[in-house]
Amino acid sequence: MTARMPDPLFPLTEEEEALLALTHQVCRREIVPARAELDETGRFPTAILAKFREVGLFAGMFETEYGGLGLSPLMPFRIVETIAQYCLGVATTFGASTTLAALPIKCGGTDAQKQKYLPALASGEKLGALAVTEPDAGSDVLNLSTTAVKSGDSYILNGVKQWITNAGQADIYCIFAGTGSKGGISCFIVEKETPGLSFGQLENKLGIRCSHTRQVVLQDVVVPAENLIGLKPNRGLLHLLQTLARSRASVAALSVGVAAGAYQEAVKYTRQREQFGQKIIRFQAVQHLLADMLVKIETARALAYRAALYAVQQYPAANTFSAMAKQYASEIAMQVTTDAVQLHGGYGYSKEYPVEKMFRDAKILAIYEGTNQMLKNQIGDHIVRTAAQIE
Ligand SMILES: Cc1cc2nc3c(=O)[nH]c(=O)nc-3n(C[C@H](O)[C@H](O)[C@H](O)COP(=O)(O)OP(=O)(O)OC[C@H]3O[C@@H](n4cnc5c(N)ncnc54)[C@H](O)[C@@H]3O)c2cc1C
């Protein structure tokens, strides 16, 4: 066996290579035999998350000061990409806690808030969720009806949040609410057991069915003012934008993972399926389809990693690059999973092969954390803003 050459563009340390190899191993052992049943029943992947905890995947997503492994900036993106290769439902559950919910605290929290909440997320002992969307405020995300009214040393929160990943399962909720007369918003850390916090029915979804999605209902929920992220009101938009710059790059990585998983299934299948007396991978039309899939995956991966590094380093155009990466990668994930079904013929249309699930799962990538139409609006704004620089 020849030793693997390190990738000169995105190098990893030996420890990081080993952790990614371990991630593949754990996913093959824990996810592959369970994913069809998790999809069918919508059962939450508790045992798989426990295994992730045990092997240090939660810690791999965090800096050392919070009990994490302090890996290189790209590693959290590569970990979620790897998990998504096997099951986007599990990867969404994991990412919603380790990325989406952790980021407002990482980006805007005080030292005390970081020390209180991030180590529990980094150990995987507690799960997190982020709640911004409402029944009438999806793409129009600043049009929030949820309110947080100051009362002594506390805020009182009222409202309903819609489509919240990990709702009901999570222990720690980052909840966005209106705090200003001029439409200002703020983010609050709310613990699960807080009186007045409750959860809706489990949503019965097309895909990512083991990722639990519910409403979060807030009825006179009293939150100590010390749980207002950054302690200053009306800074929620800044925290949300900083969060999305990184989390959208992470969704791009999830998209690359799903596409890579479907591509690998397609290669495996076309290598063993015979028609007209030969393996179907020998047909040029099949090779061309596989070639298109591979080129799309590699292009999306390069853009996703670039966006990820820009986001971590707070490069000025990071938000635009994250939008581009998520929009492109989610589109190719849908195309590649569709082609993977095609290459399986009739078998691809049945639950006997995992590409059927991957195809259903992939659809969410162009919807959550900003629809692709909204991302194109954002990219369009960037084009207009910078148009004068073109001579
Ligand atoms: C499975 C799942 C998990 C989710 N997890 C979370 C979570 O953890 N936390 C959270 O806060 N939210 C979460 N969401 C919410 C998600 O981010 C929203 O669903 C998404 O932002 C779209 O909002 P909407 O569903 O209200 O659609 P709408 O905003 O009603 O959009 C409907 C359609 O209109 C288009 N549209 C709307 N406005 C414009 C415009 N100005 N220009 C062009 N097109 C437009 C949209 O692109 C879309 O095609 C989740 C959603 C799902 C389905």
Question: Could you walk me through the main structural features you see in this protein, from its secondary elements to its overall organization?
Answer:
There is one protein chain. The chain has 391 residues and is of the alpha+beta class. The chain folds into three domains: 14-123, Acyl-CoA dehydrogenase/oxidase, N-terminal domain (Butyryl-Coa Dehydrogenase, subunit A, domain 1); 128-234, Butyryl-CoA Dehydrogenase, subunit A, domain 2, CATH 2.40.110.10; 237-389, Butyryl-CoA Dehydrogenase, subunit A, domain 3 (Up-down Bundle), CATH 1.20.140.10. It has eleven helices and nine strands. It has helices at 14-31, 35-41, 46-55, 75-86, 88-108, 111-123, 236-272, 284-312, 318-343, 355-362, 372-386; strands spanning 128-131, 147-151, 154-165, 172-178, 185-191, 197-199, 213-224, 274-275, 278-279. The strands form three sheets. It has a four-stranded antiparallel β-sheet with strand order 2-3-7-6, with helices on one face. Strands 1-4-5 form a three-stranded mixed β-sheet, with helices on one face. Strands 8-9 form a two-stranded antiparallel sheet. Strand 4 (172-178) and strand 5 (185-191) form a beta hairpin. Helix 4 runs antiparallel to helix 5 (88-108), helix 4 (75-86) packs across helix 7 (236-272) and helix 7 runs antiparallel to helix 8 (284-312). The protein is globular, with a radius of gyration of 21 Å. The N and C termini lie far apart (53 Å). The mean pLDDT is 97. The site of flavin-adenine dinucleotide has 21 residues, from strand 1, strand 3 and helix 11.
